[in-house]
Design brief:
The protein is an alpha+beta fold. About 15% of the residues lie in helices and about 35% in strands. Strand 6 (about 110-115) and strand 7 (about 120-125) form a beta hairpin.
Length: about 170
């Protein structure tokens, strides 16, 4: 029986490697390498009002490097581009880029990148049904159904989503 698990684990690892190399989404994620990210320090303004305007000069700090701000574990971090509308209730829109970190602790309610049965997805992890023998990956849109994960599924949590980035020029 032990050899069956070894063969199954080996198969899952090979499928996972193919997915990571092909960037194949299942319903919401496309893998993007962090290797191409450049270090760039930009002017940084803090505490700007979203209501009544005030002089911007009072708020300027030295600079902000987005890698330093958002990437806490470079060796374990990567980007995924979201495809679809299953997470719009949490403000994650089609085309957004999520930063995921493999080294962050995963707990119930976290937004995760998960490998499920041959593809990647971004969903909220729900472990409340663990005692019944399954987990759920929850969408944040009532038009989508949860993904039920049980012992027969290929399932690996690839990391915790730690930040979401959007190009607002398309709006």
């Amino acid at each position: 029986m032990k050899s069956v698990y070894v063969v199954l684990f080996s198969y899952i690892c090979s499928v996972y490697q193919e997915i990571m190399e092909s960037n194949k989404p299942i319903d919401g994620a496309e893998y993007i390498s962090l290797e191409d990210a450049k270090r760039l320090k930009l002017p940084y303004f803090e505490g700007l009002a979203a209501g009544y305007p005030s002089p911007a000069g009072d708020y300027q700090h030295e600079s902000l490097d987005l890698n330093e701000k958002f990437v806490h574990h470079p060796e374990a971090s990567y980007f995924v581009r979201v495809r679809g509308e299953s997470m719009i209730g949490l403000g994650i829109l089609d085309g957004d880029i999520c930063l995921a970190d493999r080294s962050e602790e995963i707990t119930d309610g976290n937004i995760v990148v998960a490998f499920v049965n041959g593809g990647l997805t971004v969903k909220t992890l729900d472990t409340s049904t663990k005692e019944q023998g399954y987990l759920r990956l929850m969408p944040a849109n009532p038009d989508y159904k949860p993904i039920i994960i049980d012992a027969y599924d290929q399932f690996i949590i690839q990391g915790k989503v730690t930040s979401i980035h959007r190009d607002t020029r398309k709006y």
